[in-house]
Amino acid sequence: MSWRGSTTVSDRIFACLPYLLPLIEVFVFGRFLLAEFPPLQLLFLPLLPLLRIYYGVRYAGLIIFFALWLLVVRNEKISHFIRFNTMQAILLDIIIFLFSILTDLVGLVPSSGFAIQTLYTTIFIGVVAAVAYSVIQSLLGRYAEIPAVSDAVYMQVR
User: Is residue 6's pLDDT more than 80?
Assistant: First the structure.
C-alpha cells in the first residue's frame, strides 16, 4: 500500500537498510539450523563483516537502536515510507529481544535441549521470513504489512 505518495528508488533502498538490524540480531538464533544445513550459511556470508563489526563494538545494538529511533523515526523531514520501515525493523528487533528472554527462561528447565533448538530455529526462520518479506515489499515500493507489528508501527509513525 502506497497511500502516502509515491516512493523514489533511493527511498526504497534506504527503507531496506534498517532491516539489517533484526537480521544481525537474529543470527544468533540460527546456529542450530545453520549447523544442520551448512549450504544455508552461504546465504548469510555477506553479513559476516557486519556481524564482526556489530559484535566487536560494545553496545553497538543499543547505539544503532537509539540512532534509528531518534534520527530517523522521529524526524518528520524523512519520508513516511522510510520512517515506517525503520520503525518496523526496530519493533522486530524488540521482538527478538523478548524472544531471547523467553529462550533464557526455557533454558532454565532441565533437559530442555530439544525445546531450545526448536524455539531457536522457529524464531530464526520467522524473523528471517519477516525481514525478507519486508525488504521485498520495500523494494517494490509497498508498505510491508506484518500483522500486529504494522499496527503498532502505524501508531508510532505519524
Answer: no
